[in-house]
Specification:
8 helices; 7 strands; alpha/beta; seven-stranded mixed β-sheet
């Protein structure tokens, strides 16, 4: 049976692969995302390009060390009117992000890249559109108080399959994409892989 390496520490992505019966081994890439994002933002790269580049960088880094293995790299970003919103480092940042998204439409962009022998062999980027309800500061703080640190830092302020769903008036897109992995496209590629 085909086995892939997941170049990510994300428990969410591992769980999605496991749920879809994709045999995997986790070997984190440890790419310094902030340095890469900063460099790409200076070049005026779009959030979509940043997401794709980070997914590819993670996959290529690990696949260069594990030849003949398929390595999956992934990255998700929030695009708010062209502004890149990254995962929070603490609860104060999480509250600031929620205030920014409050009452607005934004895009959640998830990119996946499969590499072999240090080079990308396949990639896909998917986008979901989410519109957050207009909430007051107390409601935002109450929401954050219900979320564990692990969930908060893993999901970029909202856990769509949990409490986070209540934040939105509308969600248009694939739930797995929102959770960080466009799994249907990955499965299709792996099913056809010889």
């Amino acid at each position: 049976m085909l086995k892939i390496i997941l170049a990510s520490q994300s428990k969410v992505r591992k769980k999605i692969l496991d749920e879809h019966n994709i045999l995997n081994e986790v070997i984190p890439s440890n790419v310094d995302e902030d340095v890469v994002k900063s460099s790409l933002l200076k070049e005026k790269a779009s959030p979509e390009i940043i997401s794709k580049n980070l997914a590819e960088l993670k996959a290529n880094k690990i696949s260069g060390k594990y030849s003949d293995n398929l390595v999956l790299g992934a990255d998700s970003v929030i695009d708010l009117n062209g502004e890149l919103i990254s995962k929070p480092d603490n609860r104060e940042e999480a509250l600031e992000i929620l205030r920014k998204l409050n009452g607005k439409k934004h895009y959640l962009i998830s990119s996946a890249c499969i590499s072999k022998n240090g080079s990308m062999v396949w990639n896909h980027t998917d986008k979901a559109t989410l519109t957050m309800k207009k909430m007051n500061d107390d409601e935002l703080k109450n929401y954050l108080a219900k979320i564990s640190d692990e969930a908060l830092y893993a999901y970029n302020v909202y856990q769509i399959e949990g409490e986070g769903r209540k934040l939105f008036s509308s969600i248009d897109g694939n739930e797995n994409t929102i959770m960080g992995l466009p799994i249907e496209k990955i499965k299709k590629y792996l099913d056809n892989y010889k």
